[in-house]
Design brief:
Shape: rod-shaped
Structural class: alpha+beta
Order of helices and strands: HEEHEEEEHEHE
Largest sheet: 8 strands, antiparallel
Strand content: 15-25%
Radius of gyration: 34 Å
Strand order of the largest sheet: 3-4-6-5-7-2-1-8
Number of helices: 4
Number of strands: 8
């Protein structure tokens, strides 16, 4: 082999080695970048998994045990009604069975204490007015409130009622009418969910027309109460499926 050929081969060998070393350096750099990315990305991915699991847990909390998932009802037409004539016999015993997607509860109505309010509630319930309306307000350890056809706290049947407040205040399970600047609501009512909530209603003199007491199903009230949030909208949609009124004569002595 001539010296020229030998030098050429040596040159080619050096170029091949440099090419190999360059490729090797590139591979090492790529592996280093990948390891750095993995070091950064894995904690981020792990954080994302944790947040996702937390979000899933929040969803589970919102779907309270004992409640079935339902869609928010469409708003109904508000107004258009007039105060119903007093047609009930206040001497009768009126009971309202309230069925919701979170269970049922029973209200024993006090027609002697609030005849106009009970008459109004009975009339609306028998007309199906409350069926499909939400408890739009759930203020934890205070009240749950429903009876608004619009579903946002601004609606009603188109009239207000005369006040029929109690003389001795409220208690957990008390059922009373909401009030607005115009006076006592025509349809919106609330259930007091705690002793603290009852005290927070204030008085005497008392402002809210008391027309009944939850006498069965207080566990349903507690279940809905646990769905309360800071902005007073429930974590889960709570809907009144139906209110059924039962009327009986008082027991004779």
């Amino acid at each position: 082999m001539s010296k020229a050929n030998k030098r050429e081969r040596q040159r080619l060998n050096r170029e091949q080695r440099r090419e190999y070393e360059n490729q090797l350096a590139k591979r090492r750099k790529a592996w280093k970048t990948a390891r750095t990315f993995a070091f950064i990305a894995l904690p981020v991915i792990a954080l994302g998994v944790v947040l996702n699991l937390t979000k899933s847990d929040d969803t589970k909390v919102a779907s309270a045990p004992g409640c079935t998932s339902v869609s928010a009802p469409d708003p109904k037409a508000a107004g258009g009604r007039t105060i119903p004539d007093l047609s009930i016999d206040p001497a009768q015993i009126f009971v309202a069975d309230v069925a919701t997607n979170c269970g049922a509860f029973t209200i024993t109505l006090d027609a002697a204490q609030a005849p106009q309010t009970v008459n109004n509630f009975v009339t609306l319930a028998r007309d199906g007015f409350y069926d499909g309306l939400p408890f739009h307000r759930v203020q934890k350890d205070f009240v749950i409130q429903g009876g608004d056809p619009k579903g946002d706290g601004t609606g009603g049947p188109g009239y207000t009622l005369p006040d029929e407040p109690p003389t001795d205040g409220y208690s957990k399970g008390s059922v009373a009418m909401a009030r607005s600047a115009r006076g006592t609501s025509g349809s919106q009512f609330f259930v007091v969910t705690s002793t603290t909530g009852a005290q927070a209603l204030g008085g005497p003199p008392y402002q809210y027309s008391l027309f009944g007491q939850v006498t069965s199903g207080i566990t349903t009230i507690d279940r809905i109460n646990r769905l309360g949030t800071a902005d007073q909208s429930p974590k889960q949609v709570v809907v009144i499926k139906r209110i059924t009124i039962t009327e009986t004569a008082p027991a004779t002595p």
